[in-house]
Design brief:
Radius of gyration: 21 Å
Order of helices and strands: EHEEHEEHHEHEEHEHEHEHEHEHHH
Helix content: 25-40%
Strand content: 5-15%
Structural class: alpha/beta
Length: 374
């Protein structure tokens, strides 16, 4: 069996790339397709060759490839996938829109429907300063992207969502049902420690939707508490200018530094509405509890204070006052959190569980169409 794995783009290591690493481990002879490929750490590809699109050669596509998003639907439709038996796409933007043939099986693992084009349209336009009258071009482009997104979502034979939260959004925007397979959490990279240090931690891409500015503003109003932020992105310089003395914006750090801070932090903070949220569960693998916005996938993967064995505290709104309340409630209940319980919760999402569930879904879909599994 010949397998093609389709992704949106390869740039930095994040949750989507952790999923890709398990896919390439499951199908090591697969051929990868990506709109652009500028990934430095190639280990997650497990030696699989990569074919890129015409966007790869456009000016500035190395760092500013997102500017070419209007061209990406055309780009993924140009690949000739006729020689593959199984097409496995992992998509948060355009990858699921590839064109397959009737004798192929196309299974799409959906990280999320395009959030910037659907439920986060207004926020995306505002953050890009495109909500002014002259932003009508951007609004028209998003309109066209929504039309293509809905049409292309009908192409895969089988949809898999990374959470029930995403499955609900697939049902709303695409009018399709999706199986739920939660993404993998690499628990083996982390080791719990006996006692934490007195700082809170966030590990995230520094983009507006991750709400890191909210963390910085909240801790600026609490000079007695420390915050460490690890991650890179277009917001890095601005956040560093905003940061008060008790906030450290470290930028990108290697995996060993991330794992060390996960194990030493007092708690991990998640302020964004995540479709699933791998980073908070990595902190749980290191034995640390989480203070999280009570929305999205976090509600599926962690237990709040109303549970007999809590591993997280949820706050209600993405505001300074609500986050401060969450931190106060966490500190008031600190004795209820067990490193062992946090670790056990993360292990429910171990990589082998993901590979087994994905392989079973693929085999079932292949059998349903009269094809033997890879």
């Amino acid at each position: 069996m010949k397998v093609a794995i389709i992704v949106d783009w390869l740039s930095v290591i994040g949750g989507a790339e952790r999923v890709l690493a398990e896919m390439t481990a499951l199908y090591p002879s697969a051929h990868l397709f990506a709109v652009v490929d500028h990934l430095q750490d190639r280990a997650i590809l497990n030696g699989c060759p990569v074919t890129t699109s015409f966007v790869q050669g456009l000016p500035g596509a190395g760092r500013h490839y997102r500017r070419y998003l209007p061209l990406m639907p055309l780009a993924v439709e140009q690949w000739n996938l006729g020689g593959y038996d199984l097409v496995l796409s992992a998509s948060h933007a355009v990858a699921k829109g590839v064109i397959s043939t009737p004798w192929q099986v196309h299974i799409a693992y959906i990280h999320t429907p395009m959030r910037f084009a659907w439920d986060l349209q207004d926020e995306s336009l505002e953050q890009a300063a495109l909500s002014r009258p002259g932003g009508w071009i951007a609004r028209w482009l998003l309109h066209r992207l929504r039309l293509w997104d809905q049409i292309s979502a009908q192409r895969p034979d089988h949809l898999i969502a990374n959470s029930a939260f995403v499955a609900d959004r697939i049902r709303k925007y695409w009018r399709r049902e999706a199986e739920v397979i939660h993404p993998p959490v690499a628990c083996g990279r982390f080791e719990p420690r006996a006692s934490p240090e007195d700082f809170y931690l966030s590990v995230s891409r520094l983009v507006p939707g991750k709400q890191i500015e909210l963390l910085v503003r909240t801790f600026a109003a609490m000079p007695d508490r420390r915050l460490v932020v690890i991650g890179d992105g277009p917001e890095l310089k601005r956040l560093r200018r905003m940061a008060s003395p008790n906030v450290s914006i470290m930028g990108w750090q290697p995996d060993e530094v991330v794992a060390d801070h996960m194990a030493r932090c007092r708690a991990f903070i998640l302020a964004a509405t995540e479709d699933f949220g791998i980073a908070p569960l990595e902190a749980q693998a290191a034995g640390r509890p989480v203070v999280a916005l009570g929305r999205g996938g976090a509600l599926e993967s962690m237990n709040g204070l109303d549970h007999s064995r809590p591993n997280a505290v949820f706050f209600a709104e993405p505001t300074v006052a609500s986050l401060r309340d969450g931190l106060d409630r966490f500190e008031a209940n600190a004795a209820r959190f067990s490193p062992h319980e946090c670790r056990a919760n993360a292990e429910r999402f171990a990589p082998q569980r993901f590979r087994d569930a994905l392989a079973q879904a693929v085999n079932k879909a292949m059998a349903a169409q009269g094809r033997r599994s890879p």
